[in-house]
Amino acid sequence: MRAATRPVVNHRGAGFRELYKQVTAQLKGVFQTQGEVMLITGSGTAAMEAAVVNLVSPGEKVLVLVGGKFGERWGQIARAYGAEVIEWHYDWRQGAEPEELARRLAADPDIVAVFATHNESSTGVMNDIEGLSRARELSGQRHRALLIVDSVSALGGAPLPMDAWGVDAVVTGSQKCLMVPPGLSFVALGQAALDRLERVTTGRYYLDLRAYRKAAAAGESPYTPAVTLVFALEEALAMLAEEGLENSFARHRLMRDMVRAGIRALGLPLWTGERWASPTVTAVEGAPGLEVEPFRKLVRERFGVELAGGQGEMKGRVFRIGHMGYAGPFDMIAALAAIEQGLAASGFPVKLGAGIAAAQEVWAQWK
Amino acid sequence: MRAATRPVVNHRGAGFRELYKQVTAQLKGVFQTQGEVMLITGSGTAAMEAAVVNLVSPGEKVLVLVGGKFGERWGQIARAYGAEVIEWHYDWRQGAEPEELARRLAADPDIVAVFATHNESSTGVMNDIEGLSRARELSGQRHRALLIVDSVSALGGAPLPMDAWGVDAVVTGSQKCLMVPPGLSFVALGQAALDRLERVTTGRYYLDLRAYRKAAAAGESPYTPAVTLVFALEEALAMLAEEGLENSFARHRLMRDMVRAGIRALGLPLWTGERWASPTVTAVEGAPGLEVEPFRKLVRERFGVELAGGQGEMKGRVFRIGHMGYAGPFDMIAALAAIEQGLAASGFPVKLGAGIAAAQEVWAQWK
Questions:
Q1: Contacts with B41 from chain A: Cβ below 8 Å
Q2: Staple partner for B44: which of A223, B73, B118, B173, CB 3.0–4.6 Å?
Q3: What does the alpha-carbon distance between residue B325 and residue B258 come to, in Å, rounded to a whole number?
Q4: Residue that finishes a domain, picked among B243, B266, B301
């Protein structure tokens, strides 16, 4: 946070230009792409919208994978800009099956883009992006659809090697695994997406990535960027580089496994199974004798810990434990302790320490 | 700046909701409106675009006042979203004459919106927004066109009482007179604009002010806001309240008058005359024997002071002295000192101290 307190400098000056070029280059490493990464001053939704308005023209057909609130958002944005949107609603407890994507694409050559959610933070389900990308290879021929991925709540905490997996565009936000305060978001584009950028006819201005691309060549953004957040980004990228991407992925997997073992030991149902379990957020269901919303309130008021609630349709059905970015194994133990205290105070049968011990076992056996 | 270092909190929590409501209410005081003020995470251009996409439907006719780079931007945005744009190019050394606006509106009842720039920071010209607003009263009847004003580089530093002047929409950014780091911008809408919001057909999502309005009722923004910048905004609004709006306006006028007296004493030409002189930024021309760009470079390298250059068409024709937000009279003396040192080092005939003394005279006689 201290990095955000440096005096605001002239964002057109040489010093800031150097910094801007440096963070852009480092971000390519995080996205694992040789493509281009654009910084937008705005929330993750702004970056999602940038992907839509720059990669899809009005009237074009797109397939949107909907397994939760953020999948729904892709559809809302695409419809707002006149795309013909086909929504594929899959089970919210699971990810989208690549085989099903292959079937849908084979049946519809007109689809120009597939919009997917890497980590559906409303459900704690992580999609198989590698599988979904490969599913575009149909009987030896590649379907033309671009794969455009929302990784707002995962990039940096879970693998998404864009180029290696053949993903065309990835968007993320500053405040999740990238450990920067909210206010910046990012769009990474591979070559096929960069080509499309120039041909798409959707009206756009603030989010017109052609302007970002042109300005980036001079180390600038087209409009005044959130300068103090770029300073914070510099620091966060240095921290991520020091830890190493692979180590960050491993830390997130460890936290997932600790939380899930702890929750299981406490007898609460996990929203999703092992196959789709997210390394950055875990959703837990209520149980007979445990209403989610009163439980969250009690934990907040009595123990000062804010358990995230369900979003949209999930409200009242789950509480969620975020484990991304700055979080570490001790944070998981603290979260489980708060849950145990809350269960006891709610009169739910619980053996204090049981969840924590199970999490500790996972940690002890880790690697 | 310290305010921006508080730990990032849950932006859906009760504490942040209270803060969000509080700063929104205080902003109404700064805009001097009973309408609504929406906070957008994005640069001033995002707020300009929000005004366009929420207040004009494709195919509708708008009149854009162009007296510099930011007037041009209104036209670019409106065209990007399919409006029929009529550009009124007036002399870049002056503001737009209200009588001419009255003539243009009388001749064209189809115009639905007039886009104006309060303070054209590329030229240091401030428009007569009160006069332009009144110019819509034609022979006792009010022309239906909304008046939509970009006050990114003036609001808080120069009067713009929205309701009293009958202005329908005003946009501004966080980093100018509001003294917050860049990354937030604001749109204030009066009742006529709020009504139009619901009828406009332009496709929009991240900048759809209907969503901001709905979320604001619960003290929230529809998408994750730049939380640390909202903390900084709270502090800046407290500072502005302590100084008082009228005192802030007077301080900015004093700085303008000091700079202009100093520049005149040094024999350099001011870009605009007294009538249109901006209280927040002053543009100065080169002179025989003084090329603007080499002069700026010398002042930056030898004396460590960054004089802003011209933007767009103005590049190489002027340098600019910003005097907004945190700036005070001593900053104007420092700027004039740097200019005097630079002139002497450039071999331009200058009596060291002459500009500063003239500025001091203005200060001594102030009030």
A1: 41-43, 46, 182-183
A2: B173
A3: 16
A4: B243
